[in-house]
Amino acid sequence: MICATLSFIRYLPRRIAVILEMIKDPILSKNYYPEEQEKVKIIIFLENILWLFLYQEVNKYYYAYGINRKNVSMFDYLPNGCFKKIRSKSNSAKSMIRDVEINYQLVLRDKFLFGKYLEGLGIPTPKVLAYGNTKKITWFDLGFQLPFSSILERNLDCFIKDPLSDAGNHVIHIICENGKLFSNGKSIDISFLNNIFEDNLLIQDRIEQSAEINKIYDKSVNTIRLVTMNNDGEIFPAFGIMRFGTNNSRIDNWDKGGIACKIDLDTGGLCKYGFFKNGKGTRTLSHPDTGFFFEDFKVPYFKDSSEKAIMLHSFFPGLQQIGWDIAISENGPIFIEGNDDWGLGSVQSTHGGIKKKYYEILKNRSY
User: Fold this and answer.
1) So what CATH class is 90-122+210-361?
2) What Å distances lie between residue 157 and 160, 173, 182, 208, 323, CA to CA?
3) pTM score of the predicted model
4) CB count, 10 Å around CB of 71?
5) CA pair distance 353, 72, nearest whole angstrom
6) Do residues 173 and 184 touch, judged by C-beta distance below 8 A?
7) Rounded CA gap, 147 and 248, in Å?
8) In the chain, what is the straight-line distance between the N-terminal and C-terminal CA atoms, in Å?
9) Residue 276 phi/psi, 5° resolution?
């Protein structure tokens, strides 16, 4: 307790400086709700200081959450630190199988294990083409190792990933044709990949997504983030968003400039606005690249996606909450990732404050 207090005091001036910078910066302090009355600057500053002292964190999503609006209470919003603590504890239980402790977090966090696990369960997931490192990789259609340079001998349209990466980091889309490599429309050489991937890497086939979703944005695979929760054996979807890439990006990740839209869990329809992460933009009625309006767009196969996510969650004993990344093909959902450490920012930006609902779901648990 004393160490935590001393640490808080030590970093207090720096954190206050971050708050002041956020409020003064015309990009970071952009108003997501210009049609509503905004709080005066001194109130915004004091609220951020109060948040800092109450939760020992800077609320970097203050404007994205819309807490700067006059009639919005910051106490409706779940602090990130509290959320992470509860989420981690609720997912830390080890499942006992024949007196053996098994923690399924590893299966979610390692994209290679996750892909192979889902293949075994018969759940659609991107095909794993190869696994290895920048020295040697195993091609699964061949069943043996070859030098990493063997990718130049294949015609590929695929993603190369660090199996343990998150937030869209170390994920590269490549095309290989006649011994030549391309990424984002630019010619690259194999040394480019050698510099990015230091340890293990995974090569997965690219997904062909639904033509309906391509109408909104066709440069990236645009995914559903569906959070399912398990309360005493009852598994249900709690929050849902859909993410879209922007500005010719090949990835839809919110941290990398993508847009997030809330999904109505009952209808599978997108809500009115898409939201950028703070510093990347604000909110928009339509996709900035295509002009496609989000409101009432029905996500194809959403009911099927929810049902499969609920079923799949049951194969991860001990994990109370999982954020699934789901692509939609012409034939149905394809599960790309599962995240025991799913993020809060894009969910609260699109849904509003989820504090009451989140604690209500967890009310019978003690932390």
Assistant:
1) alpha beta
2) 10, 8, 10, 11, 27
3) 0.90
4) 7
5) 10
6) yes
7) 32
8) 18
9) -90, 155
Q: What is the 3-state secondary structure (H, E, C) of 91-109?
A: CCCCEEECCEEECCHHHHH
- Tokens (6 digits) for 214: 């391509």
Give me 296's structure tokens. Answer: 């009432």
Phi and psi for 288 in degrees, rounded to 5?
-65, -25
Cβ contact 298:256 at 8 Å: no
Rg of the chain's alpha carbons, rounded to an integer? 22
| Domain spans in the chain, listed from the N-terminal domain onward | 2-77, 90-122+210-361, 128-205
CA nearest neighbour of 61 among 358, 348, 262, 351: 348
Q: Which two tokens stand for residue 183?
A: 């990424």
Q: Given this model, what pLDDT does residue 10 score?
A: 79
| Cβ pair 162, 201 in contact under 8 A | yes
Residue with tokens 């400039």: 257
Q: How many CB atoms lie within 10 A of CB 111?
A: 26
Q: Is 278 left (phi over 0), alpha (psi -120 to 50) or beta?
A: beta
Between CA 182 and CA 190, with CA 184 as vertex, the angle to 5 degrees is 35
10-residue mean pLDDT profile of the chain (367 residues): values are 69 90 96 97 97 95 98 97 92 64 87 94 95 92 90 90 76 88 85 83 93 96 96 92 93 92 97 96 96 95 97 93 97 96 96 95 65
**Phi then psi for 146, rounded to 5 degrees?**
-140, 165
Q: If you search the block for the tokens 């496609």, which residue do you land on?
A: 292
